[in-house]
Design goal:
- Helix content is about 40%, strand content about 15%.
- The protein is of the alpha/beta class and about 375 residues long.
- It has a seven-stranded mixed β-sheet with strand order 2-8-7-6-5-3-4, with helices on both faces. A four-stranded antiparallel β-sheet has the order 9-10-13-12. A two-stranded parallel ribbon has the order 1-11.
- Strand 5, helix 8 (about 180-195) and strand 6 form a beta-alpha-beta unit.
- Helix 2 runs parallel beside helix 13 (about 335-345) and helix 3 packs antiparallel against helix 11.
- It is globular.
- Bound molecules: pyridoxal-5'-phosphate.
Length: about 375
């Protein structure tokens, strides 16, 4: 999958190629339906698009302020209050970033010393390992295991030592669709408080939850002052190409993240910031309806995968379904996914890429269901060919 890239430093060699680009290119080359990379095939609300056009026409085209425009920071603070009861000061406690990806990188670069350790749950979103390597930190993984993608609290405790700087928590979780429940979050909070750790939470799928509510770790006792909450407009509003993300935390933590962020992009997406401010202020109804529609799509694709012989593991959040392919084949999931376009004109992601432990991930394949109904219907017809 990734080959040696001359000139690239040794820390980053392992991360030279991303599976998402590889699989998306394969989808284009073979004319396959792309259920791999995590982007929807329908844009978000017109109201937000029109706001972006208006912002361009109104001349919001130069560098915005380093921490983001005031309108967006206020909308983010109001969103945190409305949905979670969190009091966030829009002046000192919010930072707008170039997507959640930059926020993750800036947290690791700004908050960690070289040689520090970072704890993350496995499987993990691939950028975590790459950004941890960029920052010269070492990752420690705590396995999430089926059924339920639960973790052993003793394993979490064991992963922490005197070099540990922070715990990275992704809920709702990519790739598994797990939504961490209150008891799990309490045990993470307990470890953070006892070992004086920072929690960095990636909540980009916060609005894509079905059966279980999303609970921000920052709402737990004693956690607001040690949690950096990351989110983004990408998945919430289906504008993944706009790269508007944000960070909420204490003034001190935000200042540290901002110090790193200003040398990554400095600022980004001025007109899109205005548009996402409108989205956050005005799109509660859109979000409720979008989740209802996504849930239907989840159930439809799950049924099609089941009928094709896959063992579908439950998804409570995000727009991903994970399947166990071992009942169908003993192929490695990467080989299985490489062959899938030829076999039936579909593209999916081998979940082994989200693991250090290749044994644990060796039967798993991830499918993305935020696609038009007719696309999913055709995908299910193609699945039946397997
Ligand atoms: C868990 C997770 N975090 C972050 C991102 C990236 O978010 P953004 O597009 O806002 O950088 C993704 C995108 O797939 C994701 O799945």
């Amino acid at each position: 999958m990734s080959s040696h890239v001359p000139y690239l430093n040794s820390r980053m060699q392992k991360f030279a190629g991303t599976i998402f680009a590889e699989m998306s290119a394969l989808a284009v080359a073979t004319g396959s339906i792309n259920l791999g990379q995590g982007f929807p095939d329908v844009d978000g609300p017109d109201l937000i698009k029109r706001a972006a056009l208006r912002a361009i026409e109104n001349g919001h085209n130069q560098y915005p302020p380093g921490n983001g425009i005031a309108e967006l920071r206020s909308a983010i603070a109001a969103h945190q209050k409305r949905y979670y009861g969190l009091d966030v000061d829009s002046v000192n406690e919010v930072l707008v970033t170039a997507g959640a990806t930059e926020a993750i990188a800036a947290c690791l670069l700004g908050l960690c010393e070289i040689g520090d350790e970072v704890v993350m749950f496995e499987p993990y979103y691939d950028a975590y390992a790459a950004c941890a390597a960029l920052a010269g930190t070492r990752r420690r993984v705590v396995p999430l295991t089926v059924p339920g993608w639960t973790f052993d609290t003793a394993a979490l405790e064991d992963a922490v030592n005197d070099r540990t700087r922070l715990i990275l928590v992704n809920t709702p979780h990519n790739p598994t669709g797990k939504v961490f429940n209150l008891a799990e979050l309490e045990s993470i909070a307990d470890v953070c408080r006892r070992h004086d750790l920072i929690a960095v939470t990636d909540e980009v799928y916060e609005h894509l939850v079905y059966e279980s509510p999303h609970i921000p770790l920052a709402t737990l006792p004693g956690m607001a002052e040690r949690t950096v909450t990351i989110s983004s407009a990408a998945k919430t509003f289906s504008f993944t190409g706009w790269k508007i993300g944000w960070v909420c935390s204490t003034p001190e933590l935000v200042a540290a993240v901002r110090a790193a962020k200003q040398y990554l992009t400095y600022v980004n997406g001025a007109p899109f910031q205005y548009a996402i401010a409108d989205g956050l202020n005005e799109c509660d109804e859109y979000l409720a309806e979008a989740v209802r529609a996504l849930q239907e799509k989840r159930d439809f694709l799950a049924e099609g995968l089941n009928a094709a012989g896959f063992n579908v593991l439950g998804t409570q959040g995000t727009f991903f379904l994970t399947t166990d392919i071992s009942a169908l084949t003993d192929e490695d999931p990467y080989d299985f996914c490489r062959a899938l376009p030829q076999r039936c004109g579909l593209v999916a992601i081998p979940s082994s890429v989200f693991y250090d432990d290749k044994i644990a991930g060796r039967h798993l394949v991830r499918w993305m269901f935020s696609k038009k109904r007719e696309v999913l219907e055709e995908a299910v017809v193609r699945l039946a060919r397997l």
